[in-house]
Amino acid sequence: MAPASAHVIQKKVIIDTDPGIDDAMAILLAFQSPELDVIGLTTTFGNVSTSMATQNALHLCELAGREDIPVAQGLHKSLKGDTKEHAVDFIHGKDGLGNTNPPAPKGKPIDMTAPEFFISKVKEFPGEVTIIALGPLTNLGKAVEMDPSFAKLVGEIVILGGAFAVNGNVNPAAEANVLGDPLAADIVLTCGANTKIIGINITHQVTMTGPQIEELRRSDSKYGRYLCDVIMCYLNYHRDYYNIDAIYLHDPATVIAAIDPSLFTYAEGVVRVQQEGICRGLTLFNNTRKKWAVPTAWCNKPPVKVAVTVDADKLVVLLKERLMAS
Question: In 3D, which of 225, 246, 268 has the Cα closest to residue 312?
Answer without folding.
Answer: 246
